[in-house]
C-alpha cells in the first residue's frame, strides 16, 4: 500500500512540475514579443523556448508552447491584425521544428536543431506566397521578408541559446 501511495505522489509531482514548466514557457513566449517587437530579438528567444520545451517538457508540451502563445497574442491584440493570416502557418512551422528536433536530438542535438530549423524555414518559405495573397498589399512585402531566411537564422540562433541554457543548468545541478 505504501508503494502505491509513493508512486501516485511521484506521478502527481511529475505532472504538476510538467504543467508548471509548460505554463512558465508559455508566459515567456507571450511576454517576449510583447516587450520586444524586433524579429532578431523575439525570434531567437521564442525558438530557444521551443527547443527548451522539448528538452524539459516533452514533445506534447513543446507543441503547446508553440501554439498557445500565438493564439493568445492574436486574441489580445499583441500581434498586429494584418499578420493574422500567417498565425496558423507559424504554429504549424513551430510544430514541425519541435517534432523534428525531438526525433533527432538524442542522436545529435545539433542535427535536431539543424533539421528542425531547416524544415521550419522550408515550410514557411513554401507557403509564403499563399500567406502574402491573404494579407493586405501594404503588409505583404513585410510578411514575405519576415517568413523567409530570417526564420532559418532565428531558429538556429535559438538552438544555440537553448544549448547554452541547458549546459548551464546541467553545471548548476
Structure description:
There is one protein chain. Helices cover 84% and strands 0% of the residues. The chain has 6 helices and no strands. Helix 4 (109-134) packs antiparallel against helix 6.
Low-confidence stretches: none
Structural Rg: 17 Å
| Ends distance | 33 Å
Helix content: over 70%
**What structural class do the secondary elements suggest?**
mainly alpha
On the 0 to 100 scale, the average pLDDT is 88
Task: Give the helices and strands as they follow along the chain.
Answer: HHHHHH
Fraction of residues in β-strands: under 5%
Multimeric state = single chain
What is the number of helical segments per DSSP (H or I, 4+ residues)?
6
Largest sheet descriptor: none
| Shape summary | globular
Count of β-strands:
0
What's the quick description here?
This protein is an all-alpha fold and 173 residues long.
Secondary structure: elements and pairs:
Layout lengths: L1 H34 L3 H37 L11 H18 L4 H26 L5 H7 L2 H24 L1
Helix pairs in contact: 1-2, 2-3, 2-6, 3-4, 4-5, 4-6
Highlighted features:
about 170 residues, mainly alpha, about 85% helix
Amino acid at each position: 500500500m505504501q508503494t502505491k501511495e509513493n508512486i501516485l505522489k511521484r506521478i502527481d509531482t511529475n505532472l504538476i512540475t510538467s504543467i508548471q514548466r509548460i505554463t512558465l514557457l508559455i508566459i515567456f513566449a507571450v511576454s517576449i514579443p510583447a516587450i520586444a517587437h524586433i524579429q532578431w530579438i523575439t525570434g531567437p528567444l521564442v525558438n530557444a523556448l521551443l527547443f527548451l520545451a522539448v528538452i524539459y517538457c516533452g514533445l506534447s508540451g513543446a507543441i503547446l508552447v508553440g501554439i498557445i502563445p500565438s493564439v493568445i497574442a492574436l486574441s489580445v491584440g499583441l500581434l498586429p491584425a494584418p499578420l493574422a493570416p500567417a498565425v496558423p502557418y507559424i504554429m504549424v512551422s513551430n510544430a514541425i521544428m519541435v517534432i523534428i528536433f525531438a526525433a533527432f536530438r538524442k542522436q545529435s542535438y545539433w542535427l535536431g536543431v539543424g533539421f528542425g530549423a531547416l524544415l521550419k524555414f522550408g515550410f514557411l518559405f513554401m507557403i509564403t506566397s499563399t500567406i502574402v495573397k491573404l494579407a493586405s498589399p501594404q503588409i505583404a512585402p513585410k510578411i514575405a521578408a519576415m517568413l523567409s531566411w530570417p526564420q532559418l537564422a532565428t531558429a538556429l540562433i535559438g538552438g544555440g541559446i537553448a544549448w547554452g541554457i541547458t549546459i548551464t543548468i546541467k553545471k548548476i545541478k
